[in-house]
From TrEMBL, chain A:
<protein>
    <submittedName>
        <fullName>Alpha-D-ribose 1-methylphosphonate 5-triphosphate synthase subunit PhnH</fullName>
    </submittedName>
</protein>
<dbReference type="InterPro" id="IPR038058">
    <property type="entry name" value="PhnH-like_sp"/>
</dbReference>
<dbReference type="GO" id="GO:0019634">
    <property type="term" value="P:organic phosphonate metabolic process"/>
</dbReference>
<dbReference type="InterPro" id="IPR008772">
    <property type="entry name" value="Phosphonate_metab_PhnH"/>
</dbReference>
<dbReference type="Pfam" id="PF05845">
    <property type="entry name" value="PhnH"/>
</dbReference>
From TrEMBL, chain B:
<dbReference type="GO" id="GO:0051539">
    <property type="term" value="F:4 iron, 4 sulfur cluster binding"/>
</dbReference>
<keyword id="KW-0479">Metal-binding</keyword>
<comment type="similarity">
    <text>Belongs to the PhnJ family.</text>
</comment>
<comment type="function">
    <text>Catalyzes the breakage of the C-P bond in alpha-D-ribose 1-methylphosphonate 5-phosphate (PRPn) forming alpha-D-ribose.</text>
</comment>
<dbReference type="GO" id="GO:0019700">
    <property type="term" value="P:organic phosphonate catabolic process"/>
</dbReference>
<keyword id="KW-0456">Lyase</keyword>
<keyword id="KW-0004">4Fe-4S</keyword>
<protein>
    <recommendedName>
        <fullName>Alpha-D-ribose 1-methylphosphonate 5-phosphate C-P lyase</fullName>
        <ecNumber>4.7.1.1</ecNumber>
    </recommendedName>
</protein>
<keyword id="KW-0408">Iron</keyword>
Amino acid sequence: MAVSSHELIAGFTDPVQASQQVFRAALKVMSEPGTLVDVDYVEEAPKGLDQSTWQLTLSLLDPDTRVWLSPTLAANDAVISNLRFHCQCPLVENHGEADFAIALHSELPLLAELNWGSAEYPDRSTTLMVQVPALSAEPFWTLSGPGIEHTRSLRIAGLPDAFRAELIKSRQRFPLGIDTFWCCGNQLTALPRTTAIEPLNTAQEAC
Amino acid sequence: MSTATGYNFAYLDEQSKRMIRRAILKGVAIPGYQVPFGGREMPLPHGWGTGGMQVTASVIGEADKLKVIDQGADDTTNAVSIRRFFAHTAGVETTEQTAEATLIQTRHRIPERPLQADQILIYQVPIPEPLRFIEPRESETRKMHALSEYGAMQVKLYEDVARFGHIATSYDYPVMVNNRYMMDPSPIPKFDNPKMSMMPALQLFGAGFEKRIYAVPPFTQVESLDFDDHPFEVQSWDEACAICGSDHSFLDEVITDDNGSKMFVCSDTDYCRERVEQGFVGTAADLPIAEVGTN
């Protein structure tokens, strides 16, 4: 699909400094999982992408990264045109081949079908970026692991039960795993493969 | 200091920075695992901290305050050159004070003053693979890490015990990160090993020659290898620092004349300065320090 020039929007005003600031935000949330940070270096995002997702892609993607988009995003001309124009990243159709997978919360791929890397090279796994309806520090999930002194609370709204169960279970395969960024509006957080997730209780888990 | 023209901010081009940034994020997600990256040529030779510099260049921003130390000192050649390099190419503020710095690039020491959350400590690493002297083949050490097969290192430490009666390894002392990966902490004295565990600051490691990046996120368990009957111990001194009187910091032995006179001083110069300002004194406090240095 070609780039539709009428869909193009501006990226970062100052690409060097803004990319660095967004990376530092990504580094902060990846090294202190479940921390919520705001990133605010763009005026607008392509229709269909949240501002935090858009800023992450501008900061981290380039011609070296294969990107998979969930079906609604993949059919969105504005998203594809802007990713092609600003990041020049190759888009792949098979999510198993992607270095980065960008998905809506309602269109999550099966974690098991993403690239998990290998025992010798666990760093070659897919990084998943998910757009969700809400992120908050409400006690819903209790997180623990590297980057968390005791425990930290996080609530990610809108995730299908099956996906939540799969994500929690995926911790057993460490050091293999899928690292995840969670985006909502300007908000950003991350859950690397090392973070253990304890649901508050099964009753709340169902709601 | 004026910023250099004709170079990108912090010297490296944006594409290289993005590649290094992605490697850092994977390193943080797999604590202690060595992520291969496309090491770039830096305008100084390998072995002078090019790995640490590439990490610093990818992490640093206009708001950062950079401190660079070499064996604890801010005023040695390596530290001065690297600090000037970033002042010149990134125009960032630099400092010698540990408490003020947001980024600290270090060669072979961890500052004595405990680091805080949101500080980042960047180590220069010569040989990132702890198993390299035991197994020279990369394909094999990869497998050893994949299978968590670390018995060979215990044997190496045991050989120390058999020969000397104690574990004689005193720097570059292997650690286990988050109970999974064996990691080379870079040639810091084992005195500094306990500081790595549950540190509130983020620790990043860059090896330029070997092109590897690895990381220890804040509040991550880092355990030094040992045996039940030969527990891990750090160095200790009978002397105190001659300048500030500290009896709990890592001390350097300094020869002061041709007759075998010597004194012990803090290796961390900023910590020593801070203590002197607080009014602590050592045995050499009446000596003019400049004169001691020139003898």
